[in-house]
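Researcher: I'm preparing a figure for a lab meeting and need a structural model of a single chain. I don't have an experimental structure, so a prediction will have to do for now. The sequence is pasted below. Please return the structure as tokens so I can convert it later.
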Amino acid sequence: MEQKKLKSIIEAILFTLGSAVEIKKLAEVAGVSIKEVNDAAAELEKKYAKEDSGVMLIHLEDSLQLCTKTELYDYLVKVANAPRTYHLSDSVLETLSIVAYKQPVTRLQIEHIRGVSSSHAVDKLLEYNLIQELGRLDAPGRPILFGTTEEFLRVFGVQSLEDLPRLNPEKVERFREQAEYEALSENTENGEGSEDNPIPVGV
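Model: Understood. Here is the structure written out token by token.
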């Protein structure tokens, strides 16, 4: 397929849906390879990067999305509702940071790290669609596991979790120690051996 045609297909799909679409899905629909989609996307990015374009193409993990350029928001609010704003308190931001760096993580694991109840912060992040439920931990009570969303990447301007700032070694080591403590505490409370039945946590 000619790249010109492929770019038109990608552009039409992204414009119509308005949300992020997996690159793999775009390749399947167009009947081309993932590399061809990525090459066409790179050309579209150059096209939208020009000053006379009002939109831009962004990458979110393994997905693509068409968005309005941020410098044009002031004009948009005159004809539409203002883009959503997030009022994140220190406690909510702290909780979000823990989820981002330790996901998948349970509410109890978050509270072990913060040392206080985090129900309100977790609920607020779910309301803002910055975190989501990823499933349940295979442990007694089957607690819910949380992770970040595409909206999180969009709001903080990163393409993937790999682009998040690296934690300094001391924080990483502290997270690991806390994770080991959480696993030991939860297994002990449930009468389980920590070596035979460890509880998985992400760092």
